[in-house]
Amino acid sequence: MQFELTEEQNLIRDMVRSFAETEVAPSATERDETEHFDRALMFDRLAELGLTGIVFPEEYGGAGADYISYAIAVEELSRVCGSTGVTLSAHLSLCANPIYMFGTEAQKQKFLVPLAKGEKIGAFGLTEPSAGSDAGGTRTTATRDGNDWILNGSKIFITNAGEAEIYVVLARSDKGAEKHRGISAFIVEKGTPGFSFGKKEKKMGIRSSPTMELVFENCRIPVDNLLGQEGQGFKVAMKTLDGGRIGIAAQALGIAQGAFDAALAYTKEREQFNKPIASFQGVSFQLADMATQIEAARLLIYNAAYRASAGLSYSQESAMAKLFASETAMRVTTQAVQLHGGYGYTREFPVERMMRDAKITEIYEGTSEVQRVVIGAGLTK
Amino acid sequence: MNILICIKQVPDMESKFKINGEGTWYDRADLAWRMNEYDEYAVEQAVRLKEQVKDADLTVLCIGPDQVTETMKKALAMGCDRGVHIADADSAKREPVEIAAMIAGFAKEKNFDMIFTGMQSQDRGSAQVGVMVAELLGIPAVTTIVDFVYDNGAIQVKRELEGGSKAVVTATTPVLLTCQLGLNTPRYPTLPNIMKAKKKELLTMAPDTGGTGSRQEIASCSFPEKKGGGLVLEGDVAELADKLIQLLKEKTTVLA
Q1: Domains in chain B, ordered, with CATH?
Q2: Would you say residue A231 has pLDDT above 70?
Q3: A128 beta partners
Q4: Which end of chain B has less Cβ packing within 10 Å, N or C?
C-alpha cells in the first residue's frame, strides 16, 4: 500500500496551488459579490495549463494523468474559489467524461477533443423540476424523426449553462418503456435551433459559477448525437455521476481546506485575554477535529480516485467520499466562521463565502441522502 | 546552442525550520521542498532563449539526495530537455567550492555555450557556486542579471548594482550568468508537460569533486535571539514623560 503522492502528483499540486493563489484567489470575493463568471480566468487559463482534459489520453487532447491528479487540481482551485473548482468538475466529469466513456470514435473526435483541449466548455443536463434525485422521472422527451431526434422539455440547475458550448442531455426516448429503460443521452451543441437558456439562478453560494435552465422547443439534433445506446441513458447518467462525485468531493475538500487554513491563521493571530485564541484548549480541540476530518476526507477521495484510475469499481467509494467530504466541508466552514467570531460573519473574511459555497456540495450531483441510498444499496444487494 | 542550467532544491521558506541534532544546519525532516527561487529565473531564461533560437539543448543539473529529482522534473516540465542528477546525500554538508568542482567536472568537456545559475541559494546564500564554476572552467561570469537579450551570438545583460543602479554588460559565449529576482516571471509547468517530463532523459552520476576537499565547515547554526516585545507605559502624561526619558537614557544611546 502506497500513501505518498508521486512526483508528478506533487508537481501538479504545486503548479495548481501556485496558479490558484496567484491568479484565482485575488478576484474570488469580487466575483462572488458580482456573480461574475470570468471565462478568461476560470476556464481559458485552466486550458492553457492543461487542466481541462487532465484524465483523458493525449490522442483526445488530454494530459493522460490519473484521477488523483484531477482530484488534486479541483481541490486546489476550490481551496481559494469553489466556483472555479466546480467549473472544472462539471466540464470534465459531467460532459467530457461520458463522451469519453460512451462516445463513438467520431463523437470523441468532434466533441471530446475540443473539450479536453479547453477550446469548448461542457455541461450536463439531467435535473428537471420533477426529476432531481429520481433521475428516472425525466420528462424531457426525444422523438425520432428520420435522421433526427427532436427534443422537448427543460432542464434546471445546470452548472456552466449559457457559457458551455457542448451539453450532454438526458431525455425520454421511449415513453412506453419501463421508467429507467426509456431514457437516452444526447449531445447538444449551443446554437442548435430550438435550444435556449431560461433564467439564471440567484444562488446562496458558488455565485461566480453560472447556473441556468436549459429549454428545448422542437430542438432537432442529428441521430449521430445519440450518446451510447438508445435506452441506455440512465446507465450513462449513473456512470457519469460516479465520476462526478470524485470531482465534487474534491471541491468540498478544497473548500474545507481553505476555510481551515484561514481559521488556523486567524486563531494563531487573534489575541483575547492576552494570548492567541489558538492556545486555548477549547479552540485547539476544534482545530484538531477539523484537521482530522479533512485528512479523512482526503484519504477517502484519493482512494476512490485511485480505484477509478486502476479500473476497479468505485461507485461505493466515490459515494462515501462525496458524502463525507461534503458534510466535512459544511462542518468545517461553519466552525471556521465561528472561530472568526463577528469578523467571520462579514464579507471582509473569506470564510463567510466558503460556508455558503460548502452547502451546495451536500446537494448537487446526488444529495447526502442519495449518497446514503447508493452506499446502503451496495451493502445490502 | 548547448546550455546548462544549475539548480538546487531548497526547503519551502514558509516551512517550520528546526536546527538539526549536531546544531550545524537545519533538520531536513518534515520540510516541504521546492526549486530555489533564483534557479527558477535561470530555468525560465534558458527556456525563453531556446524558444527564441529554436536550436538549443537544455541540460538541467542538480546535486543532492534522490528526492531532488522531483525538483528536476519541474525544470524538465518547464522546458529543459534532459537532466543530470549528481546523487549526493551529503551535499548540504559540502562547501561551495566542492559543489562548484562537481559542476565544473561535469561541464568541462561538454562545451556549454551558456551556463545559467541562480545568483544564490535561498538556504545557504553563499552566492559563490556560480562564479566558482566559471573560474574553474575558465569562462567569464556575469552576476545578478535582471535583464537578458541575445541577438545572433551577442549577449547583453543588465546587472543589478547596489543602490538600485544598473550596469549594462555585453558578452559572448561561452559565459556563465547568475540570475536575480526581476529577470523574468517563471512559467507554470503545464500539466501535459509535467506528464511528459517523466519520459525525458535523467542521468544519475556519482559525486566527484576531483580532489577538491573541504576547507571550511559550519561550526554552529542557530535562530536569532527573540527580541523582547514592545513596552507599554501607563500613567499620567507627566509621569509617562519622565519614565520615557529615564528608559531612553538607560536602555538606548539616544540621550546619552
Answers
A1: 2-205 (3.40.50.620)
A2: yes
A3: A131
A4: C
A365 counts as catalytic? yes
pTM: 0.90
Between the alpha carbon of residue A72 and those of residues A44, A78, A245, A326, B179, the distances in Å are 19, 10, 14, 16, 32
User: What's the pLDDT at B256?
Assistant: 62
pLDDT value at A190 more than 80: yes
| Residue A196: predicted pLDDT | 98
ipTM comes to: 0.88
Mention every residue, 6+ apart, whose C-beta is less than 8 A from residue A67. Answer: A55, A243, A246, A304, A305, A306, A308, A309
Given pLDDT bands bounded at 50, 70 and 90, which one contains residue A89? Answer: very high
Average pLDDT of the segment spanning A65-78 = 97
Q: What are phi and psi of A349, to 5 degrees?
A: -115, 140
Answer whether B194 sits within 8 Å of A48, measured CB to CB: no
Confidence grade of residue A93 (pLDDT, cut at 50, 70, 90): very high
Average model confidence (pLDDT) for chain A? 96
Least confident window among B13-17, B77-81, B132-136: B13-17
Instruction: Determine which one of A317, A352, A362, A365 is catalytic.
Output: A365
* In contact, B87 and B32? CB cutoff 8 Å: no
CA A138 – CA A136 distance, rounded (Å): 5
> What is the distance between the alpha carbons of residues A50 and A141, in angstroms, rounded to a whole number?
36
Interface residues of B toward A, Cβ cutoff 8 Å, are 34, 69-70, 73-74, 77, 188-195, 197-198
- DSSP secondary structure of B93-120: GS-HHHHHHHHHHHHTTT--SEEEEESS
- Cα of B84 vs its chain's centroid, Å: 17
For B74-118, the pLDDT digits (tens) are 999 999 999 999 999 989 989 999 999 999 999 999 999 999 999
Give the count of Cβ contacts less than 8 A between chain A and B. Answer: 51
- Contact (CB, 8 A) for B40 and B141: no
User: How many residues in chain B?
Assistant: 256
Rg of chain B (C-alpha set) = 23
Interchain proximity B191–A50, CB inside 8 Å:
yes
Q: Measuring CA to CA, which residue among B170, B169, B200, B77 is closest to residue A14?
A: B77
Instruction: Assess whether pLDDT exceeds 80 at residue A103.
Output: yes
Whether A51 and chain B come into contact, CB under 8 Å, resolves to: yes
DSSP A72-115: HHHHHHHHH-HHHHHHHHIIIIIIIHHHHHH--HHHIIIIIHHH
Can you spell out the DSSP letters for B194-254? HHHHTTS-EEEE----TT-----------PPPPPP------S-HHHHHHHHHHHHHHH-ST
> If we measure between CA atoms, which residue out of A188, A182, A205 comes closest to residue A131?
A182
Chain B interface, mutation test: which of A4, A6, A8, most B Cβ atoms within 10 Å?
A8
